[in-house]
Amino acid sequence: MSVNYGSKRIVTGAGYGFRDWLAQRVTAALMALFTAILLVQVLFTSGPIGYEEWAGIFAGQCMKFLTFVVIIALLYHVWVGMRDIWMDYVKPVGLRLALHVFTIVWLVGCAGWAVQALWRL
Predict the structure, then answer these.
(1) Cα separation, 94 vs 90, whole angstroms
(2) Contact (Cβ atoms closer than 8 angstroms) between residue 57 and residue 63
(3) Are 39 and 23 in contact (CB under 8 A)?
(4) Spatial contact of 80 and 24, defined as CB atoms under 8 Å apart
(5) What CATH number is attached to the domain comprising 101?
(6) Side-chain half-sphere of 116: how many Cα atoms within 13 Å?
(7) Residue 65: which of 23, 1, 119, 13 has the closest Cα?
(8) CA–CA separation, 106 vs 79, rounded Å?
(9) Which of 10, 73, 94, 117 could hold 27 in an S-S bridge, CB 3.0 to 4.6 Å?
(10) pLDDT, tens digit (0-9, with 9 covering 90-100), for 69-86
């Protein structure tokens, strides 16, 4: 008679990493859609494009909201990619942790800068 003291966790196999893979695809699709929308707006702007035209494109609340969502998607996209790189290629645990912390701090700083720039327009 065997005694089962719990289930074994399987860390490989079907489904492992699927959430990250899907997140990368969804955020990439969102960024591509945003780029297409922005490109259409730029193409339909008549005359030379200066600061006033760029500010006009991002002045509406809908465009500010969409840009904010894309900034968050971009940051998550970068985080998933960088985390996977650090986990796959950096073997010393202390160095990997330091790189993870540095990446998080850097991305939070970039988010703050991007949101500040967006809402200044």
Answers:
(1) 10
(2) yes
(3) no
(4) yes
(5) 1.20.1300.10
(6) 6
(7) 119
(8) 10
(9) 73
(10) 999 999 999 999 999 999
